[in-house]
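does this look right to u?? uracil version
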Amino acid sequence: MRIYDIIAKKRDGYELTDEEIAFFVRELTKENIKDYQATALLMAIYIRGMSDREMITLTKEMAVSGDTLSLSELGITADKHSTGGVGDKTTLIVAPIVASLGINVAKMSGRGLGHTGGTVDKLESIEGFRVSLSPDEFISQVKSIGIAVVGQTGQLAPADKIIYSLRDATATVGSVPLIASSIMSKKLAAGSETIVLDVKYGSGAFMKTTADAETLSRKMVDIGKAAGRKMAAVISDMGTPLGKCIGNSLEVKEAIEVLKGNGSEDLKEVCLTLASNIVSLSLGTDTAAAREMAEKALANGSAYEKFKELILSQGGNVSQIESPDKLPKASTVYKVLAPESGYIAEMQAEIIGSASVILGAGRLTKEDSIDYAAGIILHKKTGDKVTAGEAIAELHTNDDSRLKDAERLFLSALSFSNKKPEKPPLIYKVIK
Ligand code: URA
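got this back:
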């Protein structure tokens, strides 16, 4: 078999056989395929698409391209995955909710890149928290307290690592079969029985429209089901940032508020929807009963207690959770004033995320370091009425030279109107 012939076949619009797909993934992982040949094939897939069979085979082959975790000894296991967003701290809330209800959460999370944040960075803003556990430590922590959250190891789905970096540099990220196989290969390799996906739509998401988000959701749910997993995808709005805080320690603080039964309604709603779908798939209860269980776990403090157990078990300073004022704090807090009166018609999540990166909350390259205290607190969001000169947000940073650029970018994300705008649905649909 030759990679040249596989490229030509896909270029001409034919379906690849399972053997051809397996050959590509295997030889790419062994570094026997040149980058230019791999990217030629990826571009052909981007343009020609893939049948469901091809996509399922690609995902399965990528999932077994490295280590796979077997969690069967742990009993009921669940995982969630967000396609990426701004202010998306849902893992910090959903994972302890479901773990407090007896469902084991063995979660591998990512770091932020570009305008989106990552759970691993958020957790590292807590003093001492260890995101790298050995596979044995990881499994034994889940056995003892029902929850562990770590960074993705390099050995899990290594083919995705290679393919993703090539796609990132060759304008081939936005392809449904390539995104679906990338996300699902990692989820399948990580081993959980229940997988609930949080598929974002809107300006801050890969999928800009509900139709595209629905197509991607359907494909990922079908891939997971074909591999014998219990699957759901929640399609939620990422036109506007989720909750009020963007930036690592600020988001940990906001997550603690929700875990204590307070916090923004939109954030709470997305978390409860994700948690109730995980609970209902894992325990076989109907979604309404599962929702009640999740609400109770927040109201009676058991989710908050589980979060503290997680932090303690991975070496984090729990006193920062009990007194969030002890989390990293920025030296400068700058108020952004409304430039005009009216309703906020739009607050584009991608631009707001980029403004938080300028303040130091994220990295533009994988090597950049992060200012854990940096970020943005939104006092007003899409649909709110404002008066010119009123504070609409706070910019937090330890580097004042970044303020002006961040403020300019932040304001460019906003548009105002005299009429109250229609808000897109926060939860568009749940696909099962
Ligand atoms: N997240 C992933 O892990 N892969 C993609 O292709 C897109 C988002």
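The CA atoms of residues 241 and 247 lie 11 Å apart. idk if thats expected tbh
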